[in-house]
Design a protein that fits this description.
Aspartate Aminotransferase, domain 2; seven-stranded mixed beta sheet; binds pyridoxal-5'-phosphate; globular; 16 helices; alpha/beta; four-stranded mixed beta sheet
């Protein structure tokens, strides 16, 4: 099917999709979707355009990735130029300038000495790469017993076998057995009884971090290679950490020689007002997985950062030996690297990370204005993230929020995201105050009408 030429602001007719049958859609109720499809055909700035010509306000930055808004011409130009100059070059035993430039640029953005950057194509691959670096680090270090990985209940770390093993979302795991052996999970930190309607970091729950001590006692800490957590859990419906929690996790890891991995796939690249959440919380992991906002969503890419001491541990033995038997055909792809460099320029030029801080309290007040509306049982926020939890219908979890999602999309021209009965919001960082007002006005109206 030839797509008609399109400029931002124009749209394709819905005849473009003649057949919905063959695309097996990810994380989608395929039959439900195909019965009433939602189709996006173009995007610009804060808006998508639907196939029926409506301008839809993007409350989710695509899928937490278009932090600078859509169809940025600087990124388009960089991609166009790069694909014409060098469409592809391997990075196995070869290199091209942009991969090195990007690694340098990203390491200067990252905290402390998270200076070594391994490129992937997605968040899932960035996570599995992080887990493999952690395991291989201990082997290279002669610490052969450190083979266990610890994740957390309700954690989301993508869909690779490593990621689902350390992840803690039952539906993402239960059909895919067996998973990695030797994995255990910390308790999650969601505690509505004590923390409902908290603003920013939650007050109660620092002691959830002590659960790591329990696992250390249970398994023997000298068998634990790494702990992986999201600084803020997104996919499960926005779980903001308790004050002091991440710091305490860091301390326990240090006490026992355990590597700490932050999965910053959604929190990275400005979402919480700094380049990375670790900088906002002043808790520095040993390894960090990122993706999504790295290219503003324009081209698939991920990046896993490791501290110098980890990389240096690998750099032993004869120089002709490969130190880490891992990599992807598209690691550091030139077009993705060009997109990422242009993205970093846009973030820089427009001070977009700071914008999330500037707007944070306005965003927070707007989100919390939903308190008392309809079935809202909790509101959580941090940076430009908000989670609005609705009570579930008896025996039909997820359906209430899904109805809100549909009504917002079809009748109010607003894109939100729902997971279970939680509405997760993460707009592009270029959002304006009147657009924030619009999001929460619509949500108030819609939530009131959905029983
Ligand atoms: C925290 C976290 N880790 C990993 C992933 C997986 O990223 P991808 O879908 O690019 O594989 C996601 C995706 O939402 C995520 O939120």
């Amino acid at each position: 099917m030839n797509a008609p030429e399109s400029l931002p602001g124009q749209f394709f007719s819905n005849e473009v999709i003649e057949n919905l049958d063959n695309f097996w859609m990810p994380f989608t109720a395929n039959r439900q979707y195909k019965a009433k499809p939602k189709v996006l055909v173009s995007a610009e700035g804060m808006y998508y355009q639907s196939d029926d010509g409506r301008k839809i306000l993007d409350g989710t930055a695509g899928l937490w990735c278009c932090n600078a808004g859509h169809s940025r011409c600087e990124i388009t130009a960089a991609v166009t130029q790069q694909i014409a100059q060098l469409d592809y070059a391997p990075t196995f035993q070869l290199g091209h300038p942009l991969a090195f430039q990007l690694a340098e640029r990203l390491s200067s953005l990252a905290p402390a000495d998270l200076n070594k950057v391994f490129f992937t194509n997605s968040g899932s691959e960035a996570v599995d790469t992080a887990l493999k670096i952690a395991l291989a680090y201990h082997q290279a270090n002669g610490d052969h017993n450190r083979t266990r990985l610890i994740g957390r209940e309700k954690g989301y770390h993508g869909v690779g076998f490593g990621g689902i093993s350390v992840g803690g979302i039952s539906n993402n795991r239960k059909a895919f057995i067996p998973q990695l052996p030797g994995v255990d999970h910390l308790r999650h930190t969601l505690d509505l009884e004590r923390n409902a309607f908290s603003r920013g970091l939650t007050q109660y729950g620092v002691e959830f971090a002590d659960d790591l001590e329990r696992l250390c006692q249970l398994h023997d800490p000298s068998t634990i290679a790494a702990v992986i957590v999201e600084p803020i859990a997104g996919s499960v419906g926005v779980i903001i950490p308790p004050q002091g929690y991440l710091k305490r996790l860091r301390e326990i890891c240090d006490r026992h020689g355990i590597l700490l991995i932050f999965d910053e796939v959604i929190t990275g690249y400005g979402r919480v007002g700094k380049a990375f959440a670790s900088q906002r919380y002043d808790v520095i992991p040993d390894i960090m997985a990122t993706a999504k906002g790295i290219t503003n969503g324009a081209i698939p890419m991920g990046a896993t950062f490791a501290k110098d001491f980890i990389y240096n541990t690998f750099m032993q033995g004869p120089e002709h030996t490969i130190e880490f038997f891992h990599g992807f055909t598209f690691s550091g792809h030139p077009v993705a690297a060009a997109a990422a460099l242009a993205t970093m320029d846009v973030y820089d030029k427009e001070n977009l990370f700071e914008k999330a801080i500037e707007l944070e309290s306005y965003w927070e007040d707007a989100a919390h204005s939903l308190k008392g509306v309809g079935n809202v049982i909790d509101i959580r926020n941090y940076g430009l993230i908000a989670g609005i939890e609705l009570s579930s219908r008896k025996g039909e979890p997820g359906t209430r929020a899904y109805d809100v999602f549909n009504q917002c999309f079809f009748e109010e021209d607003l894109l939100i995201r729902t997971t279970g009965d939680i509405i997760a919001l993460s707009p592009p960082l270029i959002i304006q105050k009147n657009q924030i007002d619009r999001i929460f006005d619509i949500l108030t109206r819609v939530i009131k009408t959905i029983n």
